[in-house]
Amino acid sequence: MFGLVLLTMMVPFQAILTPLYLELNAMKLTNSLLGLVLFYTTVNLPFGCS
Questions:
Q1: Taking phi first (over 0 means left), then psi (-120 to 50 degrees means alpha), and beta for anything else, what does residue 28 get?
Q2: DSSP secondary structure letters along 2-49
Q3: Assessment of whether the complete model's pTM goes beyond 0.70
Q4: How far is Cα 41 from Cα 48, in angstroms, rounded to an integer?
Q5: Whole-angstrom distance, CA of residue 31 vs CA of residue 29
Q6: Which of 8, 22, 35, 48 is an S-S bond match for 29, by CB 3.0 to 4.6 Å?
Q7: How many whole angstroms separate alpha carbon 15 and alpha carbon 18?
Q8: How far apart (Å, rounded) are the C-alpha atoms in residues 13 and 15?
Q9: What is the pLDDT of residues 4-48, one digit of tens each?
Q10: CA–CA dist 4, 28 (Å, integer)
């Protein structure tokens, strides 16, 4: 579990940002509260699991 958390922390933010935006845009969540919650959860999850 520690190795998985460490691996997710090593991925640069820029590598996650573009695919995440494309996914949210495909689901039509770019201008919604649910999209914002999903974004913050995805970005902050590796830092909150330690």
A1: left
A2: HHHHHHHHHS-HHHHHHHHHHHHHHTT-TTSHHHHHHHHHHHHHHHH-
A3: no
A4: 10
A5: 6
A6: 35
A7: 7
A8: 5
A9: 878 877 888 788 889 889 999 999 999 999 999 988 888 787 677
A10: 30
Amino acid identity at 25: N
CB environment 2-36: b (16+ within 10 A), e (fewer):
eeeeeeeeeeeeeeeeeebeeebeeeebeeeeebe
pLDDT of residue 4: 81
Is 47 within 8 Å of 9 (Cβ atoms)? Answer: yes
Find all residues with CB under 8 Å of 21, minimum gap 6, and list them: 30
Token output for 49: 């699991």
